[in-house]
Design goal:
Blueprint: H1 3-6, H2 8-33, H3 39-65, H4 71-92, H5 96-111
Organism: hydrothermal vent metagenome
Protein name: Polysaccharide biosynthesis protein C-terminal domain-containing protein
Keywords: Membrane, Transmembrane, Transmembrane helix
Length: 112
């Protein structure tokens, strides 16, 4: 269905959507069998998924609105922007791993 209008990007998007739906179904089945084993995992998944969606949309708009003739430079700038957006969003949403990385960065800055 996505192959026609989006070509190869449609295959990648369809695979990503299928993987996400598969994860949610398996998580639901496992949660029922183990009597609600960990609701924190679902919260973490939803935070990371939402953050990834925001980063993807942000990178898309950065790519469309930056006017550099050098595509490699444009890619580097958009990549760094996406990395920063994801990292700062992770700290803002209180994702444990992002907060640990932020702590390491702060320690490194204070050491100099």
């Amino acid at each position: 269905m996505l192959m026609g209008p989006m070509k190869v990007g449609g295959i990648a998007l369809a695979s990503s959507i299928a993987g996400t739906v598969d994860f949610l179904i398996l998580f639901y089945v496992m949660d029922k069998k183990l009597d609600h084993f960990d609701s924190e995992l679902l919260k973490y998944f939803l935070k990371v998924t939402g953050l990834s969606l925001c980063m993807g949309i942000g990178c898309f708009f950065f790519w469309k609105h930056l006017s550099f003739s050098n595509e490699f430079l444009k890619l580097c700038i958009v990549g760094v922007g996406g990395f920063l957006m994801y990292g700062l969003g992770g700290v803002f949403l209180k994702i444990e791993q992002a907060q640990k990385v932020w702590g390491w960065i702060e320690k490194g800055i204070k050491a100099y």
